[in-house]
Structures are given as C-alpha cells and as structure tokens.
Amino acid sequence: MICEAVKAALDSGYRMVDCAWIYRSESAVGAALADRIKAGAVTRNELFISTKLWNTFHEPDRVEAGLRDSLNDLGLDYVDLLLMHWPMAFKEQTVERKAWILNTQTEPADVDFLDTWRAMEELVNKGLARSIGISNFNIQQLTRLLDAPGLRYKPANIQVESHPFFLNKELIDFCQGRGITVTAYSPLGKGGSTYAGKPTENILEHPTITSIAKAQAHSPAQVVLRWALQRGLSIVPKSCTPVRIRENIQLFDFSLTEDEMAAISLLDKHKRLVTLENFKGFPEYPFKDISGC
Questions:
Q1: Nearest alpha-carbon partner for 51 in 20, 28, 97
Q2: pLDDT in tens, 201-246
Q3: What residues act catalytically?
Q4: Are 42 and 93 in contact (CB under 8 A)?
Q5: Which of 82, 224, 256, 281 has an alpha carbon 20 to 30 Å from 63's alpha carbon atom?
C-alpha cells in the first residue's frame, strides 16, 4: 500500500517524501522511488528525500549506522535532509521498531543531543546527508543548540506538529525569525481519526472550515493545507488514497483572504495530539507543558 501511495504521489507531482526509521516504511518508499526513477518518471536530482534519526541512534558512534540503515532501505546514497527525530535518547533494546512508541520499558540513555548533533554534522561532511535539522524540539532546546560552541551547521529545518487546533505559533515564529524553515506534520490534525487510542476532533468538519471551503469552491482539506502554506510552512499530509493524494497537491489555484486566514487561526485550542506522554519523565522530554511548546 505504501509503495503504491508513493508512486501515486510522484505521478501527481510530489517531489518531497518524508520518511523516518521508526515508521517501518522506508523499504516500501525505496521500492517506489526505484520504480519511478527506472520508468523515467522522475530523476533522483528532482527528489527531496528526508528521514529521521531514531532515539536509539543518539550515541555519536551510532549516528552514522542509523542513517545507513535508512539509506539501505531507501536504496539511496544520500538523503537531502536528516532530522533528529526527538531530543530524547533511548537505550538500545531489541524491540520491533513500531513498539518503541508504546514501550513503557524503554529507558533513557545518557546522551547529550549536542553530541548527537555533532555526529550528524559529520554525515554532511561525508555526503550522506545534504542538510540536517531537528524535530519535536522546544524553544529552549533549540536555543541551546543554536548557541552551542563550535556549531558548524545550523539546523536547516525543524519539523513540528501544527494545524488549526494547534498553531504552535511561538515556536514557529521563533524558527522563522532565525532562518530555520518549518515543516508542519499532522497538518490536518489527524482528520478525526483515532490516535494513540483516543478519538480526535475532525478539523475538516468544523463549520469555519466548511464555510470557507464552500466559498472557495475547494475541499476542507485543501483549505486547511492552503492556510498552512500561507503561514510559510512546508507540509507533509499523509494519505494512501490516490484521489486525496492528488487533491492535497492542488493548492496553487486559489488563495485565502486575510479574513479567512484569521478566522482559521482563531480555532487554535493549543491542543497538541502527538505527545508521547509515556516518556514525559525522560530528560529532554520536550513537552513539559502539554498545552504548548
């Protein structure tokens, strides 16, 4: 399913694919990339492939191994962007990848994310990653990284949760003010699906969104994604449905008015969905205040 979804995305015009070691999807993504490159539908130079270093690879001498594991699955010689998935470091355990998310037996590792970052910088020098960045950092952690002595590469990008129910405005403004591009994950707020065993409110059914969608003659999802783009964010909407994959990229034939942008922003509930609360006692857990960053 993932392989076919990536093929459909590439055929629809997408050129950026967001991956992570923990997603367990990199082999399928790699198969799709190889298929479309072989078919002449796209070249490697036209693609922007990002992946994320998982928390068990924070030890400096394991950072390269973590990326090479992803590169092997993707069938690539380099990624365009490598993100540190979380500032938290985990002790290595023999646990199936996805189980890490819910594994209450996971223990923190005594690794400073600054040391992990310095090892990631070496991957840029080796040509294994064209750029490096972070994900799920808070402002204090990002400031500590930016102020670190001997920093050779500033984070090129940060990936964080952001949608109309959780603008994450303070962090996004902080990053944009310092020349760090921001990618919004869960830009549709999980779309009313069940997440971490709990139902989520469906942004796409909110009267404000549906009203603007009707006025704009576009779908609610397109309105929400366009709102994110006009905030200066890149977005990584998730879908395995070809019709929705094509719809999600059809965002450039309309613009939201200032009033529409403001109305959507007023929906902010400071409601974060992705919290990994089972790790909130860990050093460097980034969301001490769950309502914000």
A1: 20
A2: 899 999 999 999 999 999 999 999 999 999 999 999 988 999 999 9
A3: 23
A4: no
A5: 281
